[in-house]
């Protein structure tokens, strides 16, 4: 399984914060936003990851994350010249994907919930076509909406519907078999010239091979596309970390827990940040696990 983080776009809704900085480099409490979607792929045991960003920002991500070897993973980079739709990530990453299935996650989405890693691993293991992840929202007319039957089989897709058939918003996490590259190649651009991910998902829907997983109560899905939502995400992470004494989307810890790196490597990564609470946390867990 390959993984792609789409961290492109211009972030205009977050101006002036993003006038010279990628949205995915902005802080969500104590770590860059990019850590959160990257952690999702790692929790799914995905170790070959492509980060796609705008040409002017690829270098910053490379400086932040390198080739991923310090985390026991492989990170590659590619540029999206213009924000031409989510599905374009599948074409940009076609050579990277090769003949494997792929999980695509949007760079401004945050996921947190009990057993999320096991859930994602199970869906990847049993993949047959396409898996989407739904989240109940109070204002479904603002989102792409999925209607499912009792077995989780997708019945219909609606894009910002006036009369929603369900309250399940389709979040920015998509798992596909290897056919998705060919599907994306045959998708017609929208009137705005964008390759819409909904059109890709509809192909799987028409084939009867699209499944929707309801993330359910007790789970958090956050989209950080506005100033308010970015602040709310930081407050959410701060509250949980301070009350529970754990770190959310701590890449080094996830690598350690998943067996990508050993305790000594985790401690060394922490020692490089020894003056911070983040670094002290890494040194502590590597000694007491």
TrEMBL record:
NCBIfam families (alphabetical): rmlA
Keywords, alphabetical: Magnesium, Metal-binding, Nucleotidyltransferase, Transferase
GO molecular function: glucose-1-phosphate thymidylyltransferase activity
Species of provenance: Streptomyces mutomycini
Cofactor: Mg(2+)
Similarity section: Belongs to the glucose-1-phosphate thymidylyltransferase family.
Domain of life: Bacteria
Enzyme kind, highest EC tier: transferase
Its job: Catalyzes the formation of dTDP-glucose, from dTTP and glucose 1-phosphate, as well as its pyrophosphorolysis.
Gene3D superfamilies for the chain: Spore Coat Polysaccharide Biosynthesis Protein SpsA, Chain A
Catalytic activity from the UniProt record: dTTP + alpha-D-glucose 1-phosphate + H(+) = dTDP-alpha-D-glucose + diphosphate
All copies of domain Nucleotidyl transferase, residue ranges: 2-238
Gene from which the chain derives: rfbA
Pfam family, one: NTP_transferase
Protein name: Glucose-1-phosphate thymidylyltransferase
EC numbers for this chain: 2.7.7.24
SUPFAM superfamilies xrefs: Nucleotide-diphospho-sugar transferases
């Amino acid at each position: 399984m390959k993984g792609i983080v789409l961290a492109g776009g211009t972030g205009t809704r977050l101006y002036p914060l993003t006038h010279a900085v990628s949205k995915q480099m902005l802080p969500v409490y104590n770590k860059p936003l990019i850590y959160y979607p990257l952690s999702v792929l790692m929790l799914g045991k995905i170790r070959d990851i492509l980060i796609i960003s705008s040409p002017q920002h690829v270098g910053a991500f490379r400086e932040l994350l390198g080739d991923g070897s310090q985390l026991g993973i492989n990170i590659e980079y590619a540029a999206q010249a213009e924000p031409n739709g989510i599905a374009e990530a599948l074409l940009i990453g076609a050579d990277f994907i090769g003949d494997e299935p792929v999980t695509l996650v949007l760079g401004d989405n945050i996921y947190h919930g009990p057993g999320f890693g096991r859930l994602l691993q199970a869906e990847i293991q049993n993949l047959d076509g396409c898996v989407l992840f739904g989240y109940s929202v109070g204002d479904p007319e603002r989102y792409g909406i999925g209607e499912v039957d009792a077995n989780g089989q997708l019945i219909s897709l609606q894009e910002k519907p006036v009369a929603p058939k369900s309250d399940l918003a389709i979040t920015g996490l998509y798992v596909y078999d290897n056919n998705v590259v060919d599907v994306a190649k045959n998708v017609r651009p929208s009137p705005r010239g964008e390759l819409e991910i909904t059109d890709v998902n509809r192909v799987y829907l028409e084939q009867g091979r699209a499944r929707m997983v309801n993330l359910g109560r007790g789970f958090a899905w956050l989209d950080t596309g506005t100033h308010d939502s970015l602040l709310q995400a930081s407050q959410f992470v701060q509250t949980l970390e301070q009350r529970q004494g754990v770190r959310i989307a701590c890449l080094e810890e996830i690598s350690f827990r998943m067996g990508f790196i050993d305790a000594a490597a985790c401690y060394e990564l922490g020692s490089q940040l020894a003056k911070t609470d983040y670094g002290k946390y890494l040194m502590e867990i590597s000694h007491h696990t």
